[in-house]
């Protein structure tokens, strides 16, 4: 489990499927209201407090993104207001709003172009198509669809990409709207051709 601060009132937690398996949780449990998911959330928030000083007060929103063969990304945002239905909340209480999304995209962000070039060289053998490349918030973002990956090679692809980049919860729609499209198709193959 990896915890990262995205802003003063927002954190990101990445859970691998091994993290979930160790706790006896599968991704379908997130769609149900089961005690072990509550225990995991409490563990996440405890780790966020210990590592980042992030405390839960007031209303919070939790977004959970299921990423194919990678795990889950949990985004926790604190609300600005401590008012709920016109009444002040007690400091130790919080209102919880959960959004669950499952993605058919594999999205990796690279903060260094050389890392992207190295990763592209390694992963092309697992790909039918090389995906799209965007530039967004100072990162190169590679977007692959499940259909871009050869059958049975998703785990190998994820393992290789994880060595050089980070799983990203950014959606393809956000990238299309706010990112700069650099290579519209077969991105990893184009990178290898031009930068090897």
From TrEMBL:
InterPro entries: MecA_C_sf, Neg-reg_MecA
Top-level taxon of the source organism: Bacteria
Oligomer status and interactors: Homodimer.
Family statement: Belongs to the MecA family.
Protein name: Adaptor protein
Species annotation: Vulcanibacillus modesticaldus
């Amino acid at each position: 489990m990896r915890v990262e601060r995205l802003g003063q009132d927002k954190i990101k937690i990445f859970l691998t499927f091994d993290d979930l398996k160790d706790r006896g949780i599968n991704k379908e449990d997130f769609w149900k209201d089961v005690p072990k998911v509550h225990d995991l959330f409490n563990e996440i928030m405890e780790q966020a407090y210990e590592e980042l000083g992030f405390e839960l007060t007031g209303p919070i929103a939790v977004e959970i993104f299921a990423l194919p063969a990678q795990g889950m990304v949990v985004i926790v945002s604190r609300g600005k207001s401590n008012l709920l239905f016109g009444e002040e909340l007690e400091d130790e209480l919080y209102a919880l709003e959960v959004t669950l999304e499952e993605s058919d995209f594999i999205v990796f962000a690279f903060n260094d172009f050389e890392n992207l070039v190295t990763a592209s060289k390694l992963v092309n053998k697992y790909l039918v198509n090389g995906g799209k490349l965007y530039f967004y918030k100072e990162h190169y973002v590679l977007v692959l669809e499940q259909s871009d990956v050869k059958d049975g090679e998703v785990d190998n692809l994820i393992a290789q990409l994880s060595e050089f980049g980070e799983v990203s919860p950014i959606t393809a729609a956000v990238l299309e709207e706010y990112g700069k499209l650099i290579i519209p198709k077969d991105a990893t193959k184009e990178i290898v051709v031009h930068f090897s």
